[in-house]
Amino acid sequence: MLAIDGLTVRFGGLTALEDVSLHAADGEVLGLIGPNGSGKTTLINALTGVYPATGRVCFRGEDLLGLPPERIVRLGLVRTFQNLRVFRRMTVLENVLAAQNGMTGMRFADLIGGRRRDGRRRERAHELVEQVGLGSDADRLAGTLPLASQRRLELARALVRDPALLLLDEPSGGMTPAETREMTGLIARLACPGRTVIVVEHKMALITGLCTRLAVLNFGRLIAEGAPAEVLRRPAVVEAYLGTETPVDA
Amino acid sequence: MLDDHLIGVLSNMGMISFIALSAYLVLVVGEISFGQQAFFAVSAYASGIASAMWGWPFLGAVLWGAAVAGLAGLLLAIPTLRIRGLYFAIATLAFAEMVRLALEIFTYQVEQDGELVGPNGSEGFRDIRYIYEADISAGEFLLVILALLAATLAIILWIERTRLGAILRMVGEDPVLARLQGVNVNLAKIATVAAAGLVAGIGGALYAHLNTYVEPKIFNVMLGVHGLAYGLIGGLGTAFGPLLGVALDIGVLESTRAFSGYRMIVFGGLVAVLLIVRPRGLLDEAAVYRVRRFLLRKDAGD
Q1: Which of B190, B48, B62 is nearest to B119 (CA)?
Q2: In CATH, what is the architecture of B4-301?
Q3: Which range (A231-245, B85-99, B281-295) has the least confidence?
Q4: Mean pLDDT over residues A206-222, rounded?
Q5: A223 and A56 Cβ atoms separated by less than 8 Å
Q6: Are residues A119 and A194 in the same domain?
Q7: How confident is the model at residue A250 (pLDDT cuts 50, 70, 90)?
Q8: In chain B, which residue's Cα lies nearest the Cα of A89?
Q9: Which range marks the domain in which residue A143 is found?
């Protein structure tokens, strides 16, 4: 599915990611954790073609490194953003529709055809907006939504492309505990055969509730990988990530 | 029917609207251009040459002028692809000044009936007489301007409703996010800047033929600044926005002479105030969205 081998990202003299090797199997939920600045978002940016990187990233038989972002996303690798990124001047539904615009196999007639041509697309977009619980906000301008709803919108927008690999960058960032629980429930239903989810998170409840496997980054290096309960007990992880000796109780 | 003054004002509004729409298109993809007057100029010359020197029919000359302006747009779009914001704005300004200065030395004349016809550097380009020879009145020419403007507006409004329109707005609001959704941002920008050149070109061709005379200094930066300001005043949520801007400035401020000598001060003040209270103009996305929702609700109620 996804095999990362020796991935390194450098900004001038700063090494943000060093020699990270990691794989994700089909249908699993892989948690990516680590302290602030450990390179989690950098890893996502490198995978999606936003940052230049060295090493090898193999996704469903294709080498991703060096491809521009628009090509990578068309291969079925879709992300959300830690610092929310929606088209604020478009409605919720338009945002989801917009995500379908860059798809492959679009003919010129589809580009300049009227709305009647995209009935199927609209249906699908409506479905997803409903699925993430934004049905009643479909026609609101995205910029006017509360933060938690914008995160849901990002999720709907990612799902509309039916991604093979979904990268969620802190999907519960800034959410209340109740909102976080709802989001956890949403994500839990996403992974399935044919769709892998990688989730970057800080909240242990979400991580332990969802992930089949965990990878831990610290200072740009991968320091642990394995089953969540086991990984979280390792001294190196406890020291790096939690900074205390208290074991984690989920 | 209409008096000459009114015909003149409406013709001016129509021709300037093409520059306003042109600058608006560039604004939609998120860039500011101070140089759309260059395409107006290129087409004024190219279409004038076609009709006055090569004997082309009027409509052919207009299309030719617009096509050359579109090509000039392409010429500007490709090298400026990687620069954004302030740098793009300065590049467009520099490009337009280069075009204007090139026209100052551009000489291409042929003898017709014992007289030299054609662009003559800073002397300008006289005797683009097609509409007088064809005996087209100012009122009829106004109809031609309005018909071409309506057609251009209709095409832009249509595109705004399509996926292509959505793609352009994606690029304009967040090019990185647009790329991450699979949009070829570079292609969208190049195509838009070229199309914007073409739109300004239609206006330039009309201008040359109505006035029969053009000279390089007409196409100075103030022309482009006005074209840009119309979109910023009128609004960037719909192609009606820049037209509203034109109507407010030329239709109200200039033609009624309400503020006579103070017009530019009032106009500049209006731009400044609007940029603060309504950065995306009167008809911004939120306003367009409210109007659309209102219309939809009315439809549903019927």
Answers
A1: B48
A2: Orthogonal Bundle (1.10)
A3: A231-245
A4: 91
A5: no
A6: no
A7: very low
A8: B285
A9: 88-162
CATH number, domain at A187?
A: 3.40.50.300
- Which chain A residues have a beta carbon less than 8 Å from that of B184? 70, 102
**In chain A, how many domains are there?**
2
Q: Mind telling me how many Å the CA of B180 is from chain A's nearest CA?
A: 5
Residue B246 has pLDDT above 70, yes or no: yes
Interface confidence (ipTM) of the complex: 0.86
B289 contacts A87? CB cut-off 8 A: no
- Kindly write down the DSSP assignment for every residue of B23-84, as one continuous string: HHHHHHTT---S-THHHHHHHHHHHHIIIIIS---HHHHHHHHHHHHHHHHHHHHTTTTT--
Torsion over CA: A219, A222, A227, A233 (sign): negative
pLDDT digits (tens, 9 = 90+) for A148-175: 999 999 999 999 989 999 999 999 988 9
Is the pLDDT at B189 greater than 80? The verdict is yes
Chain A residue numbers touching B180 (CB-CB < 8 A): 48, 50, 69-70, 73, 79
Residue-wise pLDDT for B45-84, tens only, equals 999 999 999 999 999 999 999 999 999 999 999 999 889 8
- Whether residue A109 is found in the same domain as residue A231: no
| Cα–Cα distance for residue pair B246/B14, rounded to 1 Å | 9
Task: Please tell me the distance from the alpha carbon of residue A93 to that of residue A141, in angstroms, as a whole number.
Answer: 9
Residues A112 and A176 in one domain: no
The position carrying tokens 């521009």 is: A68
Q: Is residue A81 part of a domain?
A: no
Task: Assess whether A34 and A95 both reside in one domain.
Answer: no
Is A102 close to B178, i.e. CB distance below 8 A? yes
A51 → chain B, closest CA residue:
B176
Q: Is residue A196 part of a domain?
A: yes
Q: Which of A162, A194, A228 is the last residue of a domain?
A: A162
Kindly state whether residues A244 and A174 are assigned to the same domain: yes
Identify whether residues A4 and A72 lie together within a single domain.
yes
Residue A222 in this model has a pLDDT that exceeds 70: yes
Question: Running DSSP on this structure, what letter comes out for residue B260?
Answer: G
> Within this chain, do residues A172 and A152 fall inside the same structural domain, yes or no?
no
Dump pLDDT digits (tens) for B103-141. 999 999 998 888 889 999 999 999 999 998 999 999 999
Chain A positions touching chain B (beta carbons under 8 Å): 48, 50, 68-70, 73-74, 79, 85, 87-91, 94, 97-99, 101-104, 106, 110-115, 118, 139, 141, 157, 161
Nearest alpha-carbon partner for A17 in A217, A202, A225, A166: A217
Using 50, 70 and 90 to split pLDDT, how confident is the model at B295?
Answer: confident
Q: Work out the number of other CB atoms within 10 angstroms of the CB of residue A188.
A: 13
Q: Final residue of a domain: which of A111, A130, A162?
A: A162
Residue A95 lies in a domain: yes
* Residue B173 touches partner A, C-beta closer than 8 Å: yes
Residue B189 forms contact with A (CB below 8 Å): no
- Confidence at residue A116, expressed as pLDDT on a 0 to 100 scale: 63
Does one domain contain both A169 and A208? yes
**Contacts of A246 by beta carbon, 8 Å cutoff, 6+ apart:** none
What pLDDT is recorded for position A117?
64
